[in-house]
Amino acid sequence: MVKLEYLKKEYEKTRQMPGKWPLSSYRYKFNITHFQPFLKALKEKRLIGLKCRSCNTVSFPPKLVCGKCLVQPDQWVALRDTGMVATFTANYMKDETTGELQSFPVIAIQQDGADTTFLTQLNPAVKFEDVYVGMPVKVKWKNQPEGNLGDIEYYDVIDDATKKMKLQNE
Amino acid sequence: MTRKRIEITTGFVQADYNFWVGKYMDKFYDGLESKQVLGNRCPTCNRVFVPPRKVCGNCFKTIDLSNNWVKLKDTGTLRNFTTTRIAVSEAGKKKTSEAIPIGMVQFDGSDTSVVYPLLDVQEKDLTIGLKVQVVWNDELKGHPRDIKGFRMLKGGER
Amino acid sequence: MSKQQAAIVSAGFCEHASKRSDVNMAEMANEAIQDCLNNANIEMDAVDAIVMGNMPAFEGANLPELWMTDWVGARDKPLIRVTTGGTTGGSVAIAGYYHVAAGLPGIETVLAVAFEQQSCGNTSVGLSSVALGEISIVNALGLPAESAMRIFGAGAAIGIASYQAINYMKRSGCTEEDLARVVVQNRRNAAKNWWTHLKMPDYTIEQVMATPYVSYPLRFGMVTPASDGACAVLFTREEIAKDTVDIPAYVNGVSSVANETGIVGYAAAGAGQLDPCEQLGAVESAKLAYSQAGISFPEKEIDYAEVYSPFPNQELMWLERLGLFKENTAHLRYRDGTTAPNGELPVNCSGGVNSTNAIGASGLERVAEAALQIMGKAENQVPKTVHTSIGHGWGGCINFVTLTVLSDQPRRK
After folding, report:
1. ipTM
2. Best mutation site among C62, C147, C257 for testing chain A: the one with the most A CBs within 10 Å?
3. Any idea which fold C6-121+225-407 has?
4. Of A3-12, C137-146, C382-391, which range is least confident?
5. How far is C121 from chain B (nearest CA, A)?
6. Do A21 and B14 touch (CB under 8 A)?
7. Cβ contacts (< 8 Å) between A151 and chain C: which residues?
8. Cβ contact (<8 Å) for C60 and B15?
């Protein structure tokens, strides 16, 4: 680890008393009534988003309450399986066997037709340097979907049609 | 519409903490290691605090670290008591088969009290005002548990 | 009971460091309070109420307002604790302001104190405790645990900043050198203050660029530290303020705005913010606070700014969202010296959050420094006269923003 040099002052070290917070003792409860149709559609390799009738924003994955109107959205809309990268970064994990740091791109996807983003991952073969905001991607389904979030195995990169478009002053 | 919920537990994270005790408590624990109970006195209102502290809450004056120390005897008076069936330790808490009496003890010469187990005594024999004495732990580490608890002083009634 | 004009008359700090191993949390907060009261020549008897704040997950000591009363001077006084994520300090300042502005009988002078002793705990556990519920929920809904940890564990605070950096760099065309320039200016400013953490008077852009990436595009040399520290600010009514100091810092506008979460949603839903560097919360709170303070042209009317930017790209982003510079031009203002201490609109002469970050205290320190510049008592005092300044805070799930507008004149009635 790189150390930064700065003007440091040393302080007397007094004793320390230990304590702990067992985060494992919490039980999280949450409501999934709005999730059931979404999970059912995943099993059939379909993507559906939940639309708020009041402001027409579509959330994918579905939200229980519309963030803008505070009403419960209840209209399901079909979505295409393509989307784009809204933002991305890299997560660094230490390889268990070699001990070396590997970087995995983590991306936030906005599904075409939806107005929210969610975190997911790309095809492991995609290099981090090639990822950019606006990159079009497509769902890669698991071979045998079971009706849960793991059915979207990852996202594949697809051809970017905009790259071939010529600007007027070119 | 019936609401279905999922209830789950997380099994993977525990956060560990280490609290710096500060210079006043450091000196207090040094004292415990040599079986000496230390307190400090506010020079303005003369209150004696055990364990010692940097600020007198009454006067909001800082009590200077280098003096104002008071060496206290290891005896005190029982100010309050109760019993509990739950033993709390660093490993967590668990229910015990017998009720453990615990009490608030004011060291002779101090104006505060500490809470510790009351040893070798039945709840029915406890009354406020009993004279008690420190029972030291066999191993002294500079830790609150160096004081194992308090025992009743024989012939020391109200 | 009538609305009162509130003003800041004093600010105090304790020495910030990566490990204040010589004090416990109560003693540390007390140091800042003693400094604040000494600077104004006021005794604790004159204080009518106390507001305090910190984030419990970082030092694992819960409900400190219950047991820290003697150390913060709350014996026989009303006490309240406020905590709102990264904006805790900002909310403490706003709570202190409201106590005075409300005009309750007997509540005229209020002490606000915010602190954090991060060395007692583990900062990344504290930050990821936000995402912990989400990780468990998506795991229960079928995402394998390893993927869940990998996706949500992407760097906590720095992960969020890198998402914002990527989007900001695309929008504005700023380069990595621009980000390094912001950091160098902040750390050199920090070296001129006694209470800051990373004092680096000779830091250079080359040194920053030589450090490795932590989370693209942010490098190790740009990362905010985790500090132990406390800050205390004294609020009072206009009449008392005029008797206490020559130039009080009148609090003319306050706002705190929450938005939908960004990046992380709730119960496996997506996040409402599409572009994490859009920060509508900042735009909204700026509108509210500026209209309260009677400011119509922030670019011209604000003389000094303290913005909450643990990472350099955020500093550029906030200056634009808060209306101080035009869209996509903030990085140019660092190149031409506008934001330097002797520039037209100096920014973060205290070194900012990039040099000192005791999370609970950081929001309050921005307000404190903004006030000290107006009062003429800051250690790194800027040469120009500061008439109006702002202290800004940010936090939560990328969605909380607080803003305080201060001036050397009371608000026009």
Report:
1. 0.86
2. C147
3. Peroxisomal Thiolase; Chain A, domain 1 (3.40.47)
4. C137-146
5. 5
6. yes
7. 142
8. yes
CA distance C253 to C286: 9
* Closest approach of A10 to chain C, Cα-based (Å): 9
| Digit-coded pLDDT (tens) for A60-100 | 888 888 878 888 888 999 999 899 988 887 776 666 677 67
Kindly state whether B17 is in contact with chain C, defined as any CB-CB distance less than 8 angstroms.
yes
Query: How are the residues of chain B apportioned to helix, strand and coil, as percentages rounded to the nearest 5?
Result: 10, 45, 40
Report the alpha-carbon angle A32-A37-A43, nearest 5.
110
> What residues in C contact A38, CB-CB < 8 Å?
none
Task: Count structural domains, chain B.
Answer: 1
Whether the bond into B51 is cis, omega within 30 of 0: yes
B-side interface with A, Cβ within 8 Å? 1-23, 25-26, 29, 90, 92, 142-144
Å between B10 CA and nearest CA of chain A: 5
Contact list, B10 vs chain A (CB under 8 Å): 23-24, 26, 28
Q: Could you give the 3-state DSSP secondary structure of residue C374?
A: helix
Query: How many CB atoms are closer than 10 A to CB C301?
Result: 17
For A23, C142, C305, the CA distances from B9, given in Å and listed in that order, are 10, 15, 45
Residue C313 to residues A31, C2, C289: CA-CA distances in angstroms? Answer: 37, 42, 23
Inspect the interface and report whether the beta carbons of A119 and C152 lie closer than 8 Å.
yes
Say if B56 is an interface residue toward chain C (CB within 8 Å).
yes
| Short-list B155, B53, B67, CA closest to B110 | B53
Residues of A in contact with C143 (CB under 8 A): 148-150
Residues B95-109 pLDDT 10s: 877 888 999 999 999
Q: What one-letter code names the amino acid at C409?
A: Q
HSE at residue B149, side-chain half, CA atoms within 13 A, is: 12
Please check whether residue B52 lies inside any domain of the structure.
yes
Measured CA distances, C383 to C183, C246, C340, C370 (Å): 22, 18, 11, 14
Give tens-digit pLDDT for C28-51.
999 999 999 999 999 999 999 999
Q: Does B21 touch chain C (CB under 8 A)?
A: yes
Per the domain annotation, does B99 fall within a domain? yes
CB–CB of B104/B78 below 8 Å?
A: yes
Instruction: Check: CB of residue C22 under 8 Å from CB of residue A12.
Output: yes
Per domain, the residue ranges of chain C are: 6-121+225-407
Provide the domain limits for residue B32: 23-152
